[in-house]
Amino acid sequence: MKPATHDAGMTVSRPAVGVLLRDWRRRRRLSQLELSIRADISTRHLSFLETGRSSPSREMVLQLADRLDLALRERNRLLLAAGFAPVYSENALDAPPMTVIRSAIRQVLDGHEPYPAVVVDRSWNLVAANESLSVLTDLVAPRLLVPPANVLRASLHPNGLAPHIVNLGEWRSHLLHRLSRQVEFSGDPDLADLEEELRGYPGGETHASGPTANDIVVPVRLRRGGRVLNLFTTLATFGTPLDVTLSELSIESFYPADEETARELRTRRSDPS
Hints:
This is Helix-turn-helix domain protein. InterPro entries: Cro/C1-type_HTH (IPR001387), Lambda_DNA-bd_dom_sf (IPR010982), MLTR_LBD (IPR041413). By secondary structure, this protein is an alpha+beta fold. It has two domains: about 1-80, Orthogonal Bundle (434 Repressor (Amino-terminal Domain)); about 95-270, Beta-Lactamase. Helix content is about 45%, strand content about 15%.
């Protein structure tokens, strides 16, 4: 472990870069030979880097991080572990450099009306939303919407959307599968804790059967006011982020899966009462 000194004078342990490289290689299910071929280095050199017998250059850290397909946050962590300064900035969304990003997000959210849309961070915490999200949040207990509100928790919690979802088992399986893949790819312990929490919620057996020949997407069927709204979602990210915060933002947009739902959402937009 390498020491890391903070401004307050406290020293904490930080994993050596070789340990992190080895752990990420194993998480990606790559042998040393496979990774060395991808990175165009010898297996011997990679072995020396992982065991600490050799120290990687800044360029080598970035090259290996790229071949391991690491998130920007993890690339910065590797650089710090190797003794280098982070390459990627991490600005708060309300910081001046993010002004154009905030404007773009607002344009996307507003342009999606009268259908719901949200912006979430890597932990699925709500960052921003359009007014039409109220068609969902009106059904959620207020305490689940206190910032930082987690949209997956609000969806599957017994006091959230879960009691109103007609196909809860199917939708629950879809969300848990998505989260499980994210946990596996990112290694994020907070996401692993969230997955464990969500799997412990009652109110819907995991949907085990596969799609039928007529299925196109997995919808969420939401019972509201005597009607059932059929919605499907798309997930969008920024294409070429160089900022950690920006790279971890996703925009999830809800679309009507039938004309009845579209008409209901349009009517609700024009007459919220």
